[in-house]
Amino acid sequence: MNRIRPHATVDDVLLVLTQVVEQVEVMWERSKDVSPAPLSVSQLRVLFVLERSEGANLRALGEALDAAPSSVSRLCDRLQAVGFLERGLSATSRREVELTLSERGRAYLAELRERRREHLRDVVGTLPAAARSTLVTGLRQLRDAAPVVHRLDDDGEPGTQSA
């Protein structure tokens, strides 16, 4: 039942938000599969973290992803093999390796985001202007209230830097 209450409860919000997230996941999964090199969710997470944290090392990346070093290393090996990631020596420590996105990796993320926007544009474009404004306000509040995930501070360490 789609009964509208004057004041939504947390459970009301969670129900609708879960439904929306699931629908968006389906749309985004379709857009991911269109690319020449579809990536796993874990591989995408690596690209997103490195995009925000150029030059992170494997340890910091593992902490940001909450993943074991061996898993992170394998993910990076695969991403390097398809040309999305580059490894280089750290400017501050000869023992550390810095991870950066390649131009191909950046282009992949840009294309992926554009396909995602196209899918969402089709849906959001059907909403009246007032509903879009309300949605933007609510989504900004949700974004600001959510903990920062998968971001590293300027020093490449896990932190709470906002994008």
TrEMBL record:
UniProt name for this protein: MarR family transcriptional regulator
InterPro entries the record matches: HTH_MarR-typ, MarR/SlyA-like, WH-like_DNA-bd_sf, WH_DNA-bd_sf
Residue ranges of every copy of the HTH marR-type domain listed in the record: 10-144
One function term, GO molecular function aspect: DNA-binding transcription factor activity
Entry superkingdom: Bacteria
Coiled-coil ranges from the UniProt annotation: none
Gene3D superfamilies assigned: Winged helix-like DNA-binding domain superfamily/Winged helix DNA-binding domain
One of the GO biological process terms: response to stress
